Amino acid sequence: MAIVQVTIVPLGTSSPSVGAYVAAVIDVLREAPEPIHYELTPMSTIIEGELDNLLAVVRRMHEVPFEHGAMRVSTSITIDDRRDKKGSMEQKLKSVEEKLK
């Protein structure tokens, strides 16, 4: 299972506010037919699932600002794809918490 961090920034809009764009992007995640799990953070969105599924979802997410009038979109992606053992967002957090004790 892979974990992807994605940040989508619409450019060329009439306002510096991006909340409406973020909400529209989250709709893509909510409606995704792929088996994914996601968490919205104040600065990005974290998605976990099979890498091919995640890339397909990110591609659709990238298109959303264009569909809502943005003239340019900057999308940053970080992929954590560990293949030696199964991992998840929850597992990664638990691992750090155990080391803090």
From TrEMBL:
Protein family (similarity comment): Belongs to the UPF0045 family.
Species per Swiss-Prot/TrEMBL record: Paenibacillus lycopersici
Protein name: MTH1187 family thiamine-binding protein
Thiamine-binding protein domain: residues covered: 4-97
Chain positions covered by the region annotation Disordered: 81-101
Taxonomic superkingdom: Bacteria
GO cellular component: cytosol
